[in-house]
Amino acid sequence: MSAPPKKQTLGYEESGSDSDEDQSENEEGMEYTGDEEIQVDFEGRSPTDSDYHGIKQLLAQLFLKAHLNLSELTDIIIGQSNIGSVVKQSGAGEINEDDDDDDDDDLMGVFAVTSAVSLSSKKKVEVVQQLRSLLVELSSSHATEECKTFIKTAIEDADAPLGLIINERFINIPPQLAVPILQNLSNELKKAVEKKEPYNFSHLIFICKLYKDEERKGKRKKMQDDVIWSNPEEEIIDQMADYKFEFCVKDEVDSGLSGNWLSGDDTMIPYRRVLIIEANKFDSVIEQIKIAVQR
C-alpha cells in the first residue's frame, strides 16, 4: 500500500462578489446574477494516480496545441511524490487513507497543480526533449538575441540545470492560494537538494497565460498595453524575471478567456509569456507575491 498523500489545509473562502451585503437577500427562486458569494475551502495534497485526468486537463489549457506528450508529463508530475501539489475542494469526499480504493479521490476535481520538472536530469524522456526543443524554437522566433542565446546555452549546460515550474489552475481560483502552494514547493525543492536529488536548479522557467486588449483599426494606441494575467501573482514574477519573451496563441484557442464577451467589451487576445529567474530568487519572489495578494 502506498503512503498516504500529504495534505495542507488552505482554508480560503472565495467570494464572487465585491459586496458585503447579507446573503439572505438571495431568496430561493431568484435568478443567479454572478454576484453571489461562494465560500469554498481548499486543501493541497500530493498528486496521486486518481488526479491524472484533472492534471492533464490543466496542462492542456496551458500548452494548448503544442506538440507535447501531456500524458507523459502528467505521469512525471504524479511520479514525483515528494515534489508538487494539487489543490482540491475540502470536504468533497472523505478519503480513507487505509484503503487503496481511489473512488473517493475521483469525486474531488483538481482545481490547481503546482510542480517542478527538471529539463536537465530528465532530458532523455520524450516529453522533456519536446519541452527543450519547444523553448529553443519559440525563443528563436520571439525572444531578444540575449534571451535567445541564454536559452540555447542553458538548455545544453549540464552544470546549470533548468527547472520548469508548473503553476496552473482554473481561472476562478483566487491568487491567495498561490502563496502556501509555492512556499510548499520551495521547501520541497530544498529538501530534495539536501537528499542529493536532481533539483538543484540554476534557473526556473515559468510559462504564464495572459491576455491583451486587441488593437483595433482607428483606435488610439494606449501608453501601456492592457494586460490581464490568468494567474495574477505571475505579474510579480514578470517584474523580477531575468529573461522573458512572449508569443500569441490566438489561433490555438476559441476565445480569450474561454467565456462570452459582451458586445461592448474589447476583444482579449491570449498570449503565453515565458519568464526565467535565477533559482536563488524563488523565495524572494514568493515573499513579494505574499505582500501583493495581502493588499
Automatic annotation (TrEMBL):
Q: Which InterPro entries match?
A: BCP1_family
Pfam families recorded: BCCIP
Task: Give a GO cellular-component term.
Answer: nucleus
Biased segments, Acidic residues type: 15-38
Q: Where is this region: Disordered?
A: 1-38
* Protein name, per record: Protein BCCIP homolog
The UniProt family comment states: Belongs to the BCP1 family.
